[in-house]
Design brief:
This protein is an alpha+beta fold. The chain has 2 helices and 5 strands, in the order H-E-E-E-H-E-E. Strands 1-2-3-5-4 form a 5-stranded antiparallel β-sheet, covered by helices on one side. It starts with a helix and ends in a 9-residue tail after the last strand. It binds adenosine monophosphate (AMP). The site of adenosine monophosphate has 13 residues, from loops. The site of adenosine monophosphate (AMP) has 13 residues, from loops.
Length: about 110
């Protein structure tokens, strides 16, 4: 999608530090990390947020979660948090579905 920064990353137009890639997904390091490990997992297909995912995206959503588990295993992350901000009020700043995979520090609950 034009003007979507994560579509630009998925197409290779915008450089990033890739951690994992397959036919449907890309995972890369967050530019402004909020934890020692902070990785973003995105679908290559443009979906603007989790609330815009449809029945046809069921498998893709499952793949995103399993990719997070694979990355956590590959990076030997003991504990991690997987979170998506859905909507501006929840802190979403990039309108392309992404999960934050955070690890390496003590996580607080509830999050701010
Ligand atoms: P959110 O605020 O939940 O929409 O998360 C968007 C995340 O994308 C933030 O943590 C940003 O630091 C991150 N981000 C924005 N642009 C880039 C980029 N070009 N490469 C990597 N991470 C980015």
């Amino acid at each position: 999608m034009a003007d979507c920064i994560f579509c630009g990353i998925a197409s290779g137009e915008i450089e990033t530090r890739i951690v994992y890639e397959d036919e449907f997904l890309l995972a890369f390091k967050d530019l402004n990390p909020q934890a020692p490990t902070h990785i973003l997992i995105i679908p290559k297909k443009h979906i603007s947020s989790l609330s815009q995912a449809a029945e046809e995206d069921l498998e893709l959503l499952g793949m995103m979660q399993l990719a997070a588990v694979k990355i956590a295993k590959d990076l030997d992350l003991k504990d991690f948090r997987l979170v998506t901000n859905c909507g501006k009020g929840a802190g979403q700043s990039v309108e392309h579905l992404h999960y934050h995979l955070l690890s390496g520090r003590r996580m607080l609950w509830p999050p701010g």
